[in-house]
Amino acid sequence: MGCNSSLAMVSILQLCLIIGAAAAGPSKMVRLVPAMHVFGDSTLDVGNNNYLPGPNVPRANTPLNGVDFPGGARATGRFSNGYHVADFIAMRLGLKESPPAYLSLAPRPTALLLSALATGVSYASAGAGILDSTNAGNNIPLSKQVRYMESTKAAMEARVGKAAARLLLSRSFFLFSVGSNDISVFAAAPGDVAALYAKLISGYSAAITDLYGMGARKFGIINVGLLGCVPVARALSATGACNDGLNQLSAGFNDKLRSLMAGLAARLPGLDYSLADNYNLSQVTFANPAASGYVSIDNACCGSGRMGAETDCLPNSTTCADHNRFVFWDRGHVTGLS
């Protein structure tokens, strides 16, 4: 898999394996970072959207989501049957699971502060994009996630002082997975691809640069996967084939993202990053699913209609017999093993 890294603290091999391999449970590894802060979309959301108002906000707060969640079935807001990639990465860093959702903590300033100091905070929001206009009004866009982080930093400084807060942030891990929703929205009403990429990279750069200014130095970047091969995209094809045009849009964005991170690392002293190639990993998995233990790479385990992709995973949905032998849990998200 084509992964690129300049991050010594967490090997890129670990990060890539976490995204693509099974995790049976929390590892007994040494705590590698004081905290992890999480930014992005539904691939990392642990429940922020549960606290957003509105009927069109995407949420995973009802069964059958979380049916395999460790410790007992519980719909936490993760778009998964159990844990997802943020949890697995957190475990490899020595944390129990992903840090909690910002909006679950915000009404309790002391709880927010303690989480920020002890484990970190997740700002990720399902449906979010790099652009504020992406699914506007139904998520926390990336720019607002960064502003929430800024307010968290201010609370940390008030408690432990500016120097201590900055040191803590410099040693913490900042995880990103975002861009899929921007590309999907664009694909529904295509326009100038070069202009899209320019806006996305500008927004991504602003987020990383702003966090760097707050003291962040260690970043984990998960690129966009094969968007044209998720069940909801395949179901639009008479043959159930992947949408090559959507995959090409994803690949083009990933090329720009790779160049962006290399440029930022060269320009910003001390910035280290790992770039996990989710796109390539998906290609490898789809080419030989049996090697990874999968029996289905195209249908959703939980859903209804053609390919299980006509509805979200709902309490009355049909589910597959063996959840973790399907790559996809619902029409747009992978299972906890994928």
From TrEMBL:
**PANTHER family the record matches:** GDSL LIPASE/ACYLHYDROLASE FAMILY PROTEIN (AFU_ORTHOLOGUE AFUA_4G14700), OS06G0725100 PROTEIN
Q: Which InterPro entries match?
A: GDSL, GDSL_Est/Lipase, SGNH_hydro_sf, SGNH_plant_lipase-like
Q: Which GO terms describe its biological process?
A: lipid catabolic process
This one is known as GDSL esterase/lipase
Family that this chain belongs to? Belongs to the 'GDSL' lipolytic enzyme family.
Query: What span is annotated as the signal peptide, if there is one?
Result: 1-23
Quote one Gene Ontology molecular function term. Answer: hydrolase activity, acting on ester bonds
Entry keyword annotation includes RNA-binding? no
Report whether Lipid metabolism shows up as a keyword of the record: yes
Q: Which UniProt keywords apply?
A: Hydrolase, Lipid degradation, Lipid metabolism, Signal
